[in-house]
């Protein structure tokens, strides 16, 4: 009878140990699941923020593109009747206005002299 009692006691201890290990595993799985759910929620929030930011940036790009198109259209309309480039020393070339030549005069020679004199 003593041997049967010892065997049952041993079996009970092993079952208790197995139950403790199962409880530890279950607790670990619960903690892992909780952490995974928190990570998933954080990832969803991050993705939502990224989508919002991308949408705002897309809207800003569309707005800037529209502004560029308007500017280019305005430039096309106003730029047709005026010279495209203006070079400030146009007088030195003997021009009164863009496209109009004037005859060479003494003033052109004096401009050349002014260029050759040192600045003080």
From TrEMBL:
InterPro entries: At3g49055-like. Residues 5-74 form a coiled coil. It comes from the Eukaryota. Keywords: Coiled coil. This is PARAMYOSIN.
